[in-house]
TrEMBL record:
This is Manganese-dependent ADP-ribose/CDP-alcohol diphosphatase. Keywords: Hydrolase, Metal-binding, Zinc. Monomer. Its EC number is 3.6.1.13, 3.6.1.16, 3.6.1.53. The lineage of its organism: Eukaryota, Metazoa, Chordata, Craniata, Vertebrata. CDD domains: MPP_Nbla03831. It comes from Pleurodeles waltl. One of its GO terms (molecular function) is CDP-glycerol diphosphatase activity. PANTHER family: MANGANESE-DEPENDENT ADP-RIBOSE_CDP-ALCOHOL DIPHOSPHATASE (PTHR16509:SF1), PTHR16509. The keyword Methyltransferase does not apply. Belongs to the ADPRibase-Mn family. It catalyses: ADP-D-ribose + H2O = D-ribose 5-phosphate + AMP + 2 H(+); CDP-glycerol + H2O = sn-glycerol 3-phosphate + CMP + 2 H(+); CDP-choline + H2O = phosphocholine + CMP + 2 H(+).
Length: 358
């Protein structure tokens, strides 16, 4: 069901949600969380995307972030946390020499949130900052991962201050008994954010050049698999193995897991030019673990959704940056024992997501 645009549709929609509430009758609302994507703030006049099909509202985006936080703060049940799905400031800040000041403006707004933010790193983070910088910045929310949890002790290479680091930025946390949230790093394999001297950069360049013969590696022109462009990335074997370990633990402990990252991993949930390079590997990994119930991404500003053949919900959240004044694009997800209900705002659809059978 699409989100309502007219007041008539709104009424039907309210009824639909009311019915769902009835079916959730007697069910306790465990917790809620916020979702927001692609703020891409910059102090610059509005302009168009690369294909000149969509306008980008660079200044407005900060106000939309601010008002989303105000709304979350006012909710009867304040969200336990917010998933910020990456690209929080735009790459144009580099040309404007305003990366630090723009990030600070965004973080000042984030600082007003009652809910802690989990920050994903997208391509625009890597246009503005090195991995080392991000690791020591407030955009590194790894300190919010579980400290007590036995599965956290599973060894994995995650962020550190090592300048030649080949590590990835990924972690998980358990906000409520039997529910786990797992952040994945979609730019683990990438030529943005990796040092040219690093093995991961060299391996990534090899993959990209094999798949994309264009002189401009950002161009998908003529490609069979058009996700192989420079502004995307993928998952290393070691990250996939680590995710497998976490999901095995969650299967054994009858948990439900929500996985989130910047890039979508299902072709029916996005324009395929926005998929992670080796999306199919991550997708089949999640499908092989019954604990995986939902994957949430940003990157494709038009948004998208699908329920896959294994019962996993794939949400691609609409981007704040292409949302004009008077509209919005964020959501609050209510988590119950048997389902999650996405309460969308503006262009984000309301959605009821039942869990797959375990
Ligand atoms: N079809 C394309 N051909 C060549 N370059 C492109 C194409 N689409 C995007 N780019 C370039 O790739 C980079 C990332 O694109 P952008 O649209 O800014 O990504 P995002 O959707 O993450 O904001 C930009 O430098 C943009 O100019």
């Amino acid at each position: 069901m699409k989100s309502p645009d007219s007041s008539g549709e709104q009424e039907i929609y309210s009824e639909f949600l009311e019915q769902e509430k009835v079916s959730n009758d007697g069910m306790e609302l465990y917790f809620t969380f916020g979702i927001i994507a692609d703020v891409q703030y910059a102090d610059k006049a509005d302009s168009y995307n690369f294909t000149r099909t969509r306008k980008r509202y660079y200044r407005q985006s900060l106000h939309l972030l601010q008002s989303a936080i105000e709304e979350w703060n006012k909710e009867a049940k304040v969200p336990s946390f917010v998933l910020q799905l990456g690209d929080v400031i735009d790459g144009i800040n580099v040309q404007l020499q305003a990366s630090d000041v723009s990030l600070q403006r965004v973080l000042n707004e984030v600082g007003k949130s009652k809910a802690a933010f989990h920050h994903v790193w997208g391509n625009h983070e890597f246009y503005n900052f090195s991995r080392n910088y991000l690791t020591s910045s407030q955009l590194n929310s790894k300190h919010l991962e579980d400290q007590q949890d036995s599965v956290s002790k599973t060894r994995h290479k995650c962020v550190s201050d090592d300048s030649d680091s080949e590590e990835y930025y990924a972690y998980h946390f358990c906000p409520f008994e039997s529910f786990r949230f797992l952040m994945v790093d979609c730019y683990d394999l990438s030529i943005i954010g990796r040092k040219p001297s690093s093995k991961k950069y060299q391996d990534s360049m090899k993959i990209l050049k094999e798949k994309n013969p264009n002189t401009d590696l950002n161009s998908p022109e003529g490609l069979l698999e058009n996700q192989f462009v420079q502004f995307n990335g993928g998952f290393s074997k070691e990250q996939l193995e680590w995710v497998n370990g976490v999901l095995t633990f969650s299967d054994e402990n009858h948990e439900k897991v929500v996985i989130f990252g910047h890039l979508p991993i299902h072709p029916d949930s996005t324009d395929t030019v926005c998929l992670a390079w080796n999306y199919a590997e991550m997708l089949s990994l999640l499908q092989s673990h019954t604990c995986a119930v939902c994957y949430i991404a940003g990157h494709d500003h038009d948004g998208g959704y699908c329920l896959d053949s294994h019962g996993i919900h794939h949400i691609t959240l609409q981007g704040i940056i292409e949302t004009p004044s008077g509209r919005h694009a964020f959501g609050t997800v209510q988590v119950y024992e048997g389902s999650m209900i996405l309460k969308g705002r503006g262009s984000v659809s309301n959605r009821v997501m039942h869990y797959r059978k375990q």
